[in-house]
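Internal QA ticket QA-208
Title: Verify multi-chain structure generation after dependency bump
Assignee: T.L.

Test input:
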Amino acid sequence: MSNIISFKNVLFSYNGEQEALHDINLNIQKGEFVAVLGYNGSGKSTLAKLINAILLPGSGKVLVDGMDTNDESLTFEIRKKVGMVFQNPDNQIVASTVEEDVAFALENLGVESSEMRRRVDSALETVGMSEYCNYAPHRLSGGQKQRVAIAGVLAMSPQCIVLDEPTAMLDPRGRKAVIDTALSLNREKGITIVLITHFMDEAALADRVVVLSGGRIAKNGPPREVFSDYDGMKQLGLGVPVAAELAQELRARGINLPRGIITPDDMVEALSPCLWRKPDERSSAGGEY
Amino acid sequence: MSAVLRAENISYTYNPGIPGSKPAVDGVSLEIGEGEFIAVIGHTGSGKSTLIQHFNGLLRPQKGRVLFDGQDIWAKGYDLRALRFGVGLVFQYPEYQLFEETVYKDIAFGPTNMSLSEQEIHRRVLDAAGFVGAGQYLDSSPFELSGGEKRRVAIAGVLAMEPRVLILDEPAAGLDPRGKKAAFELIKNYHESKGATVIVVSHSMEDVAEYAKRVIVINRGQVFCDGSVPEVFKRARELSDIGLSIPAVTSILLRLKEGCPELNASCYDITSAADAIAAVMKERGAALC
Amino acid sequence: MLKDITIGQYIYGSSPIHRMDPMLKLIFVIAYVVLLFSASTTAGIVGAVAFSLIIYKISGIPIKLIAKSLKPIVPVVVFTAVINMFFIPGDPLITIWKLTISRQGLFYAVILSFRITCLISASSLLTYTTSPIQLTDAIERLLSPLKKLKMPVHELAMMMSIALRFIPSLIEETDKIMSAQKSRGASLDSGKLREKVKALVPVLVPLFVSAFRRADELALAMECRCYRGGEGRTRLHESHFSSVDAFGTAVLVLMFGYVIATNCLFEAVI
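Actual output:
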């Protein structure tokens, strides 16, 4: 599989001050679901903006599907390939009705009206917002607004969507709707997803987790591996998913659990064989204290 | 325990008279005891934010009464401003209300409105800043701080009024794990050191379980249930019916309990959940699964 | 209180009025205003008023909403009416102290009230039945000849449409900031004018800060969605001159004919 995004020795600093990103090397493959974690100020958002040519690297290169973001003539091609969804649902909806907002990018690209209609309808259907197509944005909930924002990006038929803390301002219901949408875009449409988040449970759903700290990549690997390092994650000012934390506590109590427990399903699967065994089978218990 | 705040059958409808407008608060009666730590939960639009705005007299109930220290706050001649100094309300994203040139001046805004002496204002600002750990940037502009710092300064602006009742609407929304923890810890400190009554609106069941003693669940403008943390989270099924959840660790325990009835599933934080699982495992003599 | 402002509050519908070409609608409103003020006979004015009522009926906009949009201008109407009532000379009707109400004055006052009311309801009908985006598109198209003179027509239209889009958000935000500052003991609705102005600082500063933040984030979001000015832009809702538009034009021409006819046939009342 080929890389849709690759960072090559990327350095970035805001107006020459302290470096926000430091020698970043990162490849994201087509169809991957990558979660990016890090405390506030670790460089997550900067990373996202570099992908979309909103920011340009101070040195090094960012390639999007082989196109260098430094090449100004490719900027629009790059933005068509990589869509962005931001944190604040209120401040990224441009138009006064849902469908006009979803059409905004297509209008900018000069897509013909009937083709636009088709793409807007299909994008709204994909995110499950068709019935709201004529709503004014201020009548939608936060989660619905974020789905509209996703639809607006989706209408451009991007290969990759970067979501910059899309759930930070949402309630649990809205959060679930947005994450489910991102997951299904990835699994069903093969769209590459880069999800920047503070929620460890969301990151646990990704194929790969990248942890940033002080502008450097501190960890990069499958969630099972990254979240198994409980102490390391705490040191980075982050946490681990609830199930991983529980596993850690159980291990501290002398219970041997397999590595890589990060979801409730993992935990139930690991514990049920011995907890669910009837007491009379006790004699055949494998381990010892 | 005496009631510091009391709501007697209050109702409130936005835009009454317009067809289709439903009451946001519908016949709520509550008693808030002196020194309690209460969490209010409910999904977005359940009316919880409307409800808390009644407690410091920002909204006037169309029906029913609100009593502070046994006095009707809407009685003729009642000093509403004095009430607001006694019942401090921290809105969602309170950093958006910062306006002064320096952090010091901003925190001093409330105490100055109370017409306190210069000395007393100074003491309170330092005190509140100390509480939130803002002591070292009293002279900086609040707009230069990071997100988490701004949030804490804004909370200090309310703490400086030294309210007997502190109400916070989602104090940790949008913060990273460290910022979240810091916000809740400072609220807990205020509660413990000043003996203040605290009411927190939160979406995070983990935080509710960790910090609150009593939980009030609001659904469709009414009190759905009201009780201690175990009493409320025991009703997991009903909570999920109204779009709420229970702490993730509790739902893991409940799933395990299905095949292991002796497991104590009434645990709401990781440590006690681990203890409960370890207890059963020990009894079974199993250490390895 | 702040929520009562209805500017830019588009109400979705599918009536013929909704379906009309927005630019044409804009021209029609201007034409209707001309019509209102050129009608100088009772029959002409009654016709113009009846016309606006019929259009409202067709649009399906609830009558309550017109009443709401008219509420803020009631003092203006009353004021102008009263002034006219007393100061237009003519056959005296009633004399109170030194002031005389003449028959002509009274008549003029009534007609003027009707004119202002119709003017406001016609323009609110335009905003009720046309989404702000369509409206700014219409303005952009209407003014597009000015592009040749290097006027930033597209940019102005875009700014207007974004302003309209953010009015509800900013109103909500103002309400929230006011509540938050009230919770810190700010008294926003009492005191002398100077104190009142001073008391607004804690509301205005956060409001401006937040508006700038919004503008920043919105600009970023627009850039990410390939915005690059008006060049080469297409529209989701392309406007075509439809049968509704043709019918509307015909009706308006007839209305003009009617008003001109009444002006010629009957004696002018003003």
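Spot checks passed. Confidence is low (pLDDT under 50) at residues 1-7 of chain C.
Status: verified.
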